[in-house]
Design brief:
single chain; mainly alpha; elongated
Length: 170
Amino acid sequence: MLGVIPKIKTHVTTLVGALRTALTTADGAAAGKKVPIVGLTYPDVLLGLWVNSGPGGAVPNTPSFPPSSGNKSLATLSITAFKSYINPALKEAYKTGHAKFVDVTAKTGAYSKLTKTKKMDISALGLGTITVPKAVNEVCQLTWYCQLGNIHANNAGYTLIGNLIVKVAK
């Protein structure tokens, strides 16, 4: 996986640079530089593997608890991947195009210690009240991953992401 990080960084740097150039060309240097470009990450949905078998589980996308050792390991490793490799590379790439950056992964609590727990009961999971890491609860509240294995944010998640974008774009 680490081999792909430089490629992602290169491609994002190129795209942001091209977008900034297009804005400057269309609106003139002064105006083009003022248009905010906001790059962002995404909630670490792999934390949802704590309560959902995921696509690699015995029965795909089936809510289950406690997590298998494989799912628990993958969820734990995803934190390191986003915190130490993926998101820092994205932040640096966006910076080259004078874009602002929102680490949604961090803002949704993904970098917190997995030993910090919270009781959670999402009726759609059908698991009752369970104790999970706070970061898992957060991703389950903001995305469809835990319930459906769907990586997309739900209304609460998109509202949070939109508010974060508005805050930095000012």
